[in-house]
Backbone:
């Protein structure tokens, strides 16, 4: 699970069902996934980022070199973009948990895939 | 022959003529694709095949995503004249089909060889003049009358379509059998006597009778000839690739048919930087097809089933797309996403008993509608049952025209004008239905999802509908505006059957 994926559900929360946001991330296994740098893609994604959530998650993963927020002309600032590229896309949580701030329920992340089913019903197709 | 040799391969400078087969319902997608991807001209859809001319090289041709198979056209002409059920006359016609105009064979074979960049020094073919070819072909026509007669009679009685594969060999004298073959049946072909007498220095092109040769036998031939005779035309072509285009090298385990998955993605208007969700992704076929074509996009797939997610994981790895597509184990009716956060949703609604009709499909659409941005697009693949059920739902809500009622029409019409230049937006099916009366305030669960268009496609044994919706700002006025936009887009469709009947 990338930090981008952790972040987007948390952005501009508007009374989503029984779940609270943001889900607090804990990681036991993280891998760095080198990815091709694509500034145009990043320019589209960055405005959607919820910064408080990102910073907390980055802190949990002990990341350094994390931008603190948007600055003027960020979309031409290559250093900024590359840092965001790394934080959002290249840090991959393989194993960990996501905790609901309201209920305290822990959703597991296993093999990169977070399990956010509320009920225990799993249907095998 | 004038040609361009580029880095990506040989291209016919003046353009070569091809045809593709496509799954039923996908023809408009294919026509649009050849124009967009290959800058194709003279695009025609006739009786199940899309014909077109293009200068593209092999690598571009290989990228076609909505076609089943691609063939280089040798000849296309009027259907065989079968005014009488006379074996002799029909055979004569077939002989003429094959023997007449050897130039068309030679030139097509030459293009084919160049496209595939087969051994360039084997240019003997283009140096041969027409006559020896003609003679040899005639020598090869040794017909097994008895076998043919039974088959021929069967064919003529049952259908006019037959698929005939003919062997031609310019270098050696061989015995071949003229055979007829039922188009979709596996067992009709019984060729037991292809005696290939190989000349000692045979290096030239040989074509085998296509009859499910496999193993070493198949490898002795370079390629096959494809012939399709029906009431509309007689078409002869060479398959450009050994493997159908529809069978993707990058998909390890296919879920949904790849051509349909790509067609759905092509409808979704995916733009760079979009957030695209498939909330019932299964093995991830749709996301794979989309990510291959539109890479600068954020893709998320979700499913409730571990085994499906594992399969999807595998598929992503095999395609090298595991970094482009995120997977979540979540339920489509409870998506852990804020409202209006997703730009595009593309999904194959599972068919079958697992999904109870009625309640579930409404909940699914409701949740999809919630997470979708205003102006966002949803493209769904619906079984006929689901589709019918949705129509029932829709009756409770938005009227499909401002007057408020329609005659109930059975089924869905797909509007397609064969042979005409077709823009995808003209190919609109309409369903006229009885609208639930009155209250626009009585919102159906997907009230702000406005249907844009739908396409009936074949999934083999069953049919299904690709349906596109757009989310409009939820107010009654804008809903009506969207509805009348939808209507005017159907105005040119000659098969339109939306009938407004009276009031109430």
Residues:
């Amino acid at each position: 699970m990338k930090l981008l994926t952790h972040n987007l559900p948390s952005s501009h929360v508007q009374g989503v069902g029984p779940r609270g946001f943001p889900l607090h991330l804990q990681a036991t296994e993280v891998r760095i996934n080198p990815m091709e740098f694509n500034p145009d893609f990043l320019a589209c994604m960055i405005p959607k980022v919820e910064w408080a959530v990102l910073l907390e998650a980055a802190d949990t993963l002990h990341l350094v070199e994390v931008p603190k927020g948007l600055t003027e002309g960020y979309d031409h600032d290559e250093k900024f973009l590359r840092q965001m590229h790394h934080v959002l896309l290249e840090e991959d949580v393989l194993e960990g948990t996501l905790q609901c701030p309201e209920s305290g329920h822990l959703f597991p992340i296993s093999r990169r895939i977070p399990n956010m089913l509320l009920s225990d019903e799993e249907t095998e197709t | 022959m004038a040609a361009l040799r580029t880095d990506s391969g040989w291209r016919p400078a003046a353009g070569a003529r091809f045809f593709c087969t496509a799954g039923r319902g996908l023809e408009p997608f294919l026509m649009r694709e050849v124009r967009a991807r290959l800058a194709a001209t003279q695009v025609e859809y006739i009786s199940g095949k899309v014909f077109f001319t293009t200068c593209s090289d092999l690598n571009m041709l290989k990228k076609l995503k909505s076609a089943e198979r691609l063939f280089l056209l040798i000849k296309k002409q009027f259907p065989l004249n079968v005014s009488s059920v006379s074996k002799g006359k029909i055979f004569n016609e077939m002989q003429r089909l094959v023997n007449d105009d050897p130039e068309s064979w030679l030139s097509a074979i030459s293009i084919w060889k160049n496209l595939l960049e087969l051994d360039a020094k084997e240019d003997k073919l283009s140096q041969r003049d027409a006559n020896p070819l003609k003679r040899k072909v005639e020598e090869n026509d040794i017909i097994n009358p008895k076998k043919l007669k039974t088959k021929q009679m069967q064919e003529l009685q049952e259908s006019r379509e037959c698929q005939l594969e003919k062997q031609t060999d310019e270098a050696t004298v061989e015995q071949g059998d003229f055979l007829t073959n039922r188009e979709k049946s596996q067992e009709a072909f019984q060729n037991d006597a292809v005696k290939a007498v190989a000349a000692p220095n045979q290096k030239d092109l040989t074509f085998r009778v296509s009859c499910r040769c496999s193993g070493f036998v198949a490898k002795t031939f370079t390629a096959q000839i494809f012939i399709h005779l029906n009431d509309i035309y007689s078409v002869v072509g060479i398959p450009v690739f050994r493997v159908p285009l529809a069978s993707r090298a990058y998909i390890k385990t296919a879920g949904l048919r790849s051509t349909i998955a790509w067609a759905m993605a092509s409808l979704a208007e995916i733009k760079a930087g979009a957030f695209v969700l498939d909330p019932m992704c299964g093995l991830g076929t749709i996301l794979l097809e989309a990510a291959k074509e539109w890479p600068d996009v954020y893709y998320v797939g979700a499913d409730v089933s571990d085994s499906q997610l594992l399969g999807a994981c595998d598929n992503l790895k095999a395609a090298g797309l595991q970094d482009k597509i995120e997977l979540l184990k979540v339920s489509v009716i409870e998506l852990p996403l804020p409202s209006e956060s997703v730009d595009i949703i593309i999904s194959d609604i599972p068919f079958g008993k697992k999904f109870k009709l009625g309640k579930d499909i409404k909940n699914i659409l409701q949740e999809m509608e919630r997470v979708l941005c205003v102006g966002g697009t949803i493209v769904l693949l619906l079984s006929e049952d689901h589709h019918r059920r949705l129509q029932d739902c829709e009756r409770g809500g938005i009227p499909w025209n401002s007057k408020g009622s329609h005659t109930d029409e059975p089924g869905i019409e797909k509007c397609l004008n064969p042979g005409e230049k077709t823009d995808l937006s003209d190919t609109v099916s309409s369903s006229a239905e009885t609208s639930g009366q009155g209250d626009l305030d009585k919102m159906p669960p997907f009230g702000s999802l406005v249907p844009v268009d739908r396409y009936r496609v074949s999934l083999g044994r069953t049919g299904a509908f690709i349906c596109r919706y757009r989310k409009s700002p939820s107010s009654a006025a804008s809903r009506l505006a969207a509805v009348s936009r939808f209507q005017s887009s159907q105005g040119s469709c000659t098969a339109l059957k939306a009938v407004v009947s009276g009031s109430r």
About this structure: Strands of chain A lie at 24-32, 91-99, 106-110, 113-114. Residues 3-8+22-102 of chain A form a domain with the N-terminal domain of TfIIb fold (CATH 2.20.25.10). The longest helix of chain A spans residues 78-90.
